[in-house]
């Protein structure tokens, strides 16, 4: 950590991107304030499966950023006792038994780029990682990625916020709607719901699915592919599963209390968005998701609903992260991405470094908001 600087920064958003950026700024000596519309971790971070990975196929730049994200978590875990809520038990993925099955191709790709990967027959899985019913695995086999894991984001956010406060950072929760204020074409602060303006040299907008609309207010376009999220938690059970499962009908990860967190593409599509903007999940959707999870777990245990989280899932239009300063508006920075869990620590670190040093980071160059400028 360096000494205190004269730089004042306000972060809007109390999810993993906002909190990570805030704590990294504070470590670098910046005078940092974080504001959130409600309690922290009340948005996308509360409904993320939080699978830490760079599995399957994506651009080389995005893969490299995600691998760096995994490395940051492993370094983080080496210096703290966070084993209750941050674990690297690997990831297991398989595709449906039809013409769309790409599992052999995915395995070849992962191997070619040096990603840790094994292609296993259904009968071989249990010797490598426990907890999967081999009858549920398609005959083409499953990939085991040993370097993957999961994190409980609210636990991580809580730990980071404690450090942030110890470093002198300020947190304003239940601040209502916040907006960036401009003077002479540059960001100069944030106005919160009470009307109070917090003056700053730089602002970071890390408001998840609200980022594109906030950028639009200052005349900048960010392509928006935001969809719906539904994360279901079961009641705790005794079960040997350690890995995160990504299967054709359900994704599953363990949780700190012995429950499972579940999501899937089909169940998210069934979420109803009411006219007032609230979200509703049909009982049949929830029951179906719990049943699909039971089918792939060893012993086919009966899973019982504990809680569910619904809302928008932030995804840029081209699927890749959006990080950095808006074109032509000095001091106005944004973070907007899917995979907030995998990228949370590394993006916060790199963006904070850019803001304090004024020097762009090469790892972020492919992900600038400028790519959406017409």
Question: What features would you describe in this structure?
Answer:
The protein has 374 residues and is of the alpha+beta class. It has 2 domains: 8-46 and 153-222 and 317-372, 3-Layer(bba) Sandwich (FAD/NAD(P)-binding domain); 91-146 and 227-313, D-Amino Acid Oxidase, subunit A, domain 2 (D-Amino Acid Oxidase, Chain A, domain 2, 2-Layer Sandwich), CATH 3.30.9. It contains 9 helices and 22 strands. Helix 1 (16-27) packs parallel to helix 9 (340-357). The two termini are 40 Å apart. The relative contact order is 0.20.
Secondary structure layout plus pairing:
Elements: E1 8-12, H1 16-27, E2 31-35, E3 51-52, H2 60-78, E4 86-87, E5 91-93, H3 103-112, E6 118-120, H4 125-128, E7 142-145, E8 149-151, H5 153-166, E9 170-172, E10 179-183, E11 186-191, E12 197-199, E13 202-205, H6 211-217, E14 227-234, E15 244-246, E16 251-254, E17 260-263, H7 265-269, E18 272-273, E19 279-280, H8 283-296, E20 305-313, E21 322-325, E22 332-336, H9 340-357
Parallel strand pairs: 1-2, 1-13, 2-9, 5-15, 13-22
Antiparallel strand pairs: 3-8, 4-8, 5-7, 6-7, 10-11, 11-12, 14-17, 14-20, 15-16, 16-17, 18-19, 21-22
Strand content: 15-25%
The level-1 CATH class of the largest domain = Alpha Beta
Helix percentage: 25-40%
> How would a textbook summarize the main sheet?
8 strands, mixed
What general outline do the C-alpha atoms trace? globular
Structural class: alpha+beta
DSSP, total strands? 22
Please compute the radius of gyration using only Cα atoms: 21 Å
How many domain regions? 2
> Please, what is the average pLDDT?
97
Distance between the termini: 40 Å
Q: Tell me the strand order in the biggest sheet.
A: 6-7-5-15-16-17-14-20
Low-confidence stretches: none
Examine the coordinates and then state which fold CATH places here, giving the name of the CATH topology of the largest domain. FAD/NAD(P)-binding domain
